[in-house]
Design a protein that fits this description.
eight-stranded mixed beta sheet, six-stranded parallel beta sheet
Amino acid sequence: MKQFFKFVLATIVGVVLITVVLVLVVIGIISASGDKTIEVEPNSVLHIAFTNPITERTPNNPLAGLGILGLDKDKSTGLNDILANIKKAKTDNNIKGIYLDESYMVSGQATTEEIRNALIDFKKSGKFIVAYSEIYTQGFYYLASVADKVYMNPKGIFELKGFNSQVTFLKGALDKLGIEVQIIKVGTFKSAVEPLFLTKMSDANRLQVTSYLGSLYDHFLTGISKSRGINKDSLFNYANDGRVQQPEDAVKLKLIDGLKYKDEILDDLKTRTGTPSKNDLNSVELADYTKSNADGDNKDDSSSKNRIAVVYASGEISGGEGDDNTIGSERISKALRKVRLDNKVKAVVLRVNSPGGSSLASDVIWREVMLTKKVKPIIVSMGDLAASGGYYISCAADSIIAQPNTITGSIGIFAILPNMQKLFNDKLGVTFDGVKTGKYADLGDISRPLTPEEKLILQNNVNRGYDDFTKAVAEGRHKTQAYINSIGQGRVWTGEQALKNGLVDRLGNINDAIASAAKKANIKNYNLVAYPEQKSFFNQLSGDVTAEARCRILQSELGDNYKVYEQIKSVTQMMRTPQARMPYSIEIK
């Protein structure tokens, strides 16, 4: 026994020592690389390849891309740094052009639009953009179409087939399990719950999907038409008739400029930059360029005491703290209070990229936006999504700026309560019995169906939530509640459609929102500050590593079915409180 305890003690001491050593190694690596400045060589190209999901802000991970200890995750760059780097490269004399390499654009359409517009602005410098890929997805081609030259591999794949949006319906599976999903909602178009009690789209949902999908596709074709000089109707017919079957078809139809292998592209870039053929091409990765010593065209003025705060609200909305990928009402509220009370902050931009979530948490954040507007300008910049709860937290702002392909609206409320009586009784043989002191003491019990009286109570609560929602929107948008109800009912709109019906004020990007905030605050010189403050790497280390590992294992095992798992997981979260969220997860292919 004594030997056993000696062995255990020695093992514990060994693990502690190894952990300490690893931590010291990590600290050393961070110290050595964290503030390292990247020197950009003359006649360089900025190499851009989007192969990881694009977030609103670059993750606070100093080990990203180092490939050690399994802590590197993805070497991803946030939209904030992507836009800043393209802008910086525009006036960096060492950067001669941009090389858009193979990308899969794991991003929403509004995010792609922001980057595309930044590239269009970059071209005003007279510098070149060359795009190349072995596979052109529609998303990447939309981005690459702004390039001076668009090339692809001679054996590559080119997609131009139109958009489609598909919904996964779970009713059949729930029926087999003996689970009845009891739905309480307001809004003819509030279709987030349809997958739980229908086997196909309702007529109202099909109408709204057809409408916004058509709007998105029209914008997609218009953008390519303008960049490539091809008639929009011709582009529609190319896709509709399946005219692009081989790479040569894309060249013939002038969708791309030629077919080349990678070595030929590199030779072309060498020629463009004046690099001798025997030398390596000077290039800098987008993520590394963030650390370059080039100032670029930066509007920040270090001598100014004025600040514009950009408050990032990204992800699903819930109570509590949240993180960089979810909107916790407590965390965002604290950030808004902080910038509201900071006299140096003259205006606020609330960057919203959210499908919504808890109606209560949304209302908490809405209140802080209202209070902020009373003391300083607050402008909303909408990303890929600003729908339902995402719109709720936006509607009180002084003005709202969205991209044409932002998904917004979805003004509606719903609640879900499962009745698992058949699963417990018939499938599992489990029964329940008990005592209660009041008629409604067990309201919300999932082991039995709701009574008519209980359904009425819940429906009244949801109705009140919808009334509060539409009142807030009507007040913020200076419309009547009756009008908001007419365009509400849970209906989803694109930014372009929302501009026409008055849910947004103008179309534009986050820089337009910042400029608008500065103008409303009557300031010309200012510094940008971002909120909420990102968690330090060590504070998020343990939780993130565990969650990342679990996520990757599930993705590996489930493959494409991982999306179904995420949908089921989301449903379980919806059952806690009334929801103001998007009609299911919209994925456009």
